[in-house]
């Protein structure tokens, strides 16, 4: 039989997952505490008791997203552009629309906007780790290469290819891989 702490943790996770599901479907501004409660099968007050506000529930949801993203990215074979892009495209297929919506509404997110800065920094760090062996040694050249890799692998690049240009997932991955190889081979 589970403990009270287990029940509390399970409720918190249900609320965070319900919030994430809603954020995947609609802009943050349109998500309500009532919808979160309904999705988590708890009361409005329970959501507030656990997270104090919609913002708190959103922070928990984004933490779930961060953990899932990190889990996907740790599987990448180092210095392998094709595999790295495949993993990114997999991630973007799951969460890319949310990432783009979140970034586009950053000025209205208040304290939540700082999460975008953390995500960008984490992406850059990941690029530097994955492609460390293929990056230039000189600091200025390395910085330029990482900037170009960031542009080639950013969620906005995925959005342009998949959503705006209507490319298939495989064609999107091939295009992004070509961009990454172009940066690394210069």
Any overview of this molecule?
There is one protein chain. With 186 residues, the protein is mainly alpha-helical. It folds into 2 domains: 1-61, Orthogonal Bundle (Tetracycline Repressor, domain 2), CATH 1.10.357.10; 75-186, no CATH class. Helices cover 75% and strands 0% of the residues. It is built from 9 helices and no strands. Helix 5 (81-104) crosses helix 9 (169-184). The longest helix has 24 residues, at 81-104. The mean pLDDT is 91.
Fraction of residues in helices?
Answer: over 70%
Put simply, the count of helices is 9
What is the percentage of strand-forming residues? under 5%
Using DSSP, what is the number of strands? 0
Which structural category fits the helices and strands?
mainly alpha
Distance between the termini: 60 Å
What order do the helices and strands follow? HHHHHHHHH
Unreliable residue runs: none
Give the count of structural domains.
2
Query: How can the largest sheet be summarized?
Result: none
- Mean pLDDT, rounded to whole units? 91
Radius of gyration: 19 Å
- Global shape: elongated
């Amino acid at each position: 039989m589970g403990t009270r702490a287990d029940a509390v943790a399970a409720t918190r996770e249900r609320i965070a997952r319900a919030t994430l599901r809603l954020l995947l479907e609609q802009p943050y501004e349109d998500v309500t505490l009532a919808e979160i409660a309904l999705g988590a099968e708890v009361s409005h007050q329970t959501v507030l008791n656990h997270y104090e506000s919609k913002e708190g529930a959103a922070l928990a949801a984004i933490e779930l997203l961060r953990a899932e993203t990190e889990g996907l990215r740790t599987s990448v074979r180092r210095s392998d552009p094709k595999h790295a892009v495949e993993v990114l495209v997999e991630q973007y297929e799951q969460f890319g629309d949310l990432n783009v919506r979140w970034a586009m509404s950053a000025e209205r997110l208040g304290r939540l906007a700082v999460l975008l800065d953390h995500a960008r920094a984490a992406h850059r760090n990941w690029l530097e780790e994955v492609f460390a062996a293929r990056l230039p040694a000189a600091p200025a050249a390395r910085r330029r290469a990482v900037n170009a890799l960031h542009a080639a692998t950013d969620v906005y690049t995925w959005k342009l290819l998949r959503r705006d240009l209507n490319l298939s997932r495989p064609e999107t991955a091939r295009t992004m891989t070509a961009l990454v190889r172009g940066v690394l081979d210069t």
